[in-house]
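Q: Structure tokens for this one, please.
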Amino acid sequence: MWELSKVAGLSQTDSASNIEQVVLKAWRQLMQQQLLKYRRQYQKKLLIFQKKKLSFLS
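A: Here is the predicted structure, written as tokens:
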């Protein structure tokens, strides 16, 4: 890893912080995708529940 960063012209601290930034960015994107997925599933279930509740009440 350190050899690669020397070739790229980065100091050791630069490469560490760059890697950290890349990992954080990827993690955030993954979490946002998961959040969207769960939100969609929740909304679908909520709709189904509301329809059932309405049909039960009527």
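A few notes: The chain has a mean pLDDT of 82. Residues 12-57 form the longest helix (46 residues).
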